[in-house]
Amino acid sequence: MAKKMKVSKTQMKFEVLEKLASLGINTEEQLEKLTPKELLGVESLSFKEIELIGQLQECVNENLLFSFLTADISVITEEPKPEKSTRKKKADSEVTTDGE
Fold first, then answer.
1. Which of 48, 64, 69, 96 has the smallest CB count inside 10 Å?
2. Helix, strand or coil for residue 46?
3. Which run of H or of E encompasses 3?
4. pLDDT greater than 90 at residue 65
């Protein structure tokens, strides 16, 4: 039985880049055009590697390639939620008039 060697996330990311290069994916444009369906058709890619390629695509779109390679990041593609409006409470004392 072969022992599995522990692979760092960074090493795995570089292995994914090597696999993409072996498939002829050499530019950002080619990477962006890849669809999940096309990736599932490549027998040499695991689901984890396909997930990494999806993250890589998002990072390339956001100009975060270096961050993708060196850190454990994920790109948030949601728009930020609008801030809640804050209303100032009325003062406890109200001004009253005498009715004159």
1. 96
2. coil
3. none
4. no
Question: Mind listing the pLDDT tens digit for each residue in 83-95?
Answer: 555 555 555 555 5
Distance CA 27, CA 32 (A): 9
Select from 49, 26, 50 the least CA-distant residue to 38.
50
Distance, CA of 31 to CA of 44 (rounded, Å): 17
Determine the Cα–Cα distance for residues 16 and 51; give it in Å rounded to an integer: 10
pTM of the predicted model as reported, rounded to 2 decimal places: 0.62
Widest pairwise Cα distance in the chain: 99
CB atoms < 10 A from the CB of 66, how many? 9
Residue 89 corresponds to which amino acid? Answer: K
CB 60 within 8 A of CB 32: yes
CB-CB neighbours of 13 under 10 Å: 19
